[in-house]
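Weekly modeling sync, notes
Attendees: S.R. (lead), two postdocs, one rotation student

Agenda item 3: backlog of single-chain predictions. S.R. asked that every request posted to the team notebook include the full sequence so nobody has to chase files. The rotation student volunteered to paste the first one in as an example of the format we agreed on. Action items at the bottom.

Example entry:
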Amino acid sequence: MKHDVPSYRSIFPRKTARFFWFALWCLLLVAPALGHSAQDKKAEAQLRTVHGSIVDKDDNPVATSVVYLLNLRTQSIITRITDDTGAYRFSGLDPNVDYEIHAEHDDLVSATRTISSFDSRRDIEVILKLSHKKAAH
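Predicted structure, as returned to the notebook:
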């Protein structure tokens, strides 16, 4: 007694088999990208933002001040110039790094403030007051 076992060709027509292999190939290409996208979003959600304003001794906003942000790990400095309302913003900052921030305008400078990696806030507001003259070099 002979048992006829159907071949895969009789079960899956040629077009269906091609579609199956094409779909599998596409899935293998797209799946890693989706995984990275989720990881990237998670990492991006953990980044920090530091923002605030620069004010004078009477708490008036100071436009066109230069704000310096020093990465204490790499010693790199990022600068921003305040807008008409004295506001500034630094985004995309590593939460595992300590930073120092200060502002300058003409011959005035603010105190330097430290932003610690132990501070778990993702959105940090720092108001800097221009209070003393720059040291002469």
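Discussion: group reviewed the output briefly. The domain at 48-133 is CATH 2.60.40.1120 (Immunoglobulin-like).
Action items: rotation student to repeat for the remaining queue; S.R. to check formatting next week.
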